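Thread title: Can someone regenerate the structure for this chain?

I was given the following input by a collaborator and told the matching structure tokens would be attached. They weren't. Posting the sequence so someone can regenerate them.
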Amino acid sequence: MKNFIIAFLVFLVWSFFGLWLYTVLQPDNPALTGDSEVAANNTLETDKELESLENMKETQTDSILITKAYEEEPVATSTQGLKALSETGDIIFYFPEGFKIVKNSSRVEIPAGLIDFKYKLNTYFVEHPNTELHITSQYSPGENIETPNLGIKRGQYLKQILAKAGIPSQRIVIKPHITQIEFQPDNTYRHSFSFSFKPLNDKRVSALKYQMPEDRVVYPNFSSQGIWENEDLRLLAKDISEILIENPNLHITVIGHTDNIGNAIDNYRQGLEYARQVRWYLVNKTGIDRNRISADSKGESELIAGNDTERERNINRRIEINFYQDTYE
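Best answer:
Regenerated them for you:
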């Protein structure tokens, strides 16, 4: 009996010892028991997913920032209406309504309420003789590609008006600016121009003496009997005389344009007849050698307006003056 008790006690001691030893040898993290490799893999995958999500967030953030920067990029001269600024940035005048342009056309319409713009600009110029006037003229990349571009052509139209009002043409600078324009359903837009005075650039004015003059467009009084003299022609004769005297190697071509009423051949002949009459007028009015002035016709091939109304047809009937150097002299 005594031996049994001793044996039982020894068994209990070894059992407790075995349990203690088993407990000591077990790892502290129960997640690594049994499925430790699976748990490690899951942790790794989770880390990768978190990293992927962070990268995605960064990419999305960058995309939003880029898009936002593009959408919010300021468009030059996008101010609504018509504004003129002094050389110090002060507002000379502001009209909520602007000039109307037509998509793919050099046509510019000036509302009756804005007709005084030229006098306001001329008055400021007279009071500030050491300045020059810059015309910013917008055109859209979605419009027809022309040479010169439509921004320049539209600016030239306004430049002629301002020159007639008294601002010397060499003091008027056209600044074409290409930008997205949201045309109305009828393909018109009313906010593409602005004016600003800058300090006079004497070097630029001096350099103009050696540059090719800008092409001109004039509107004489057309009739079934021919062309009648008007203020447009008188001013043209004065300008042509001065330009050709100062530039003895310059020649000009007078080009007649018509509407599209009738057939193309007759319109070509009509345009040529108009051009010849203007050529004859310039020769007799200025005394310039007639060999320096030639006549040509584009007929109805270069319309700048529709032909549905008499007003549109009158816009198409015009005389264009092109300058060129005589390469044979």
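The CA atoms of residues 103 and 187 lie 5 Å apart.
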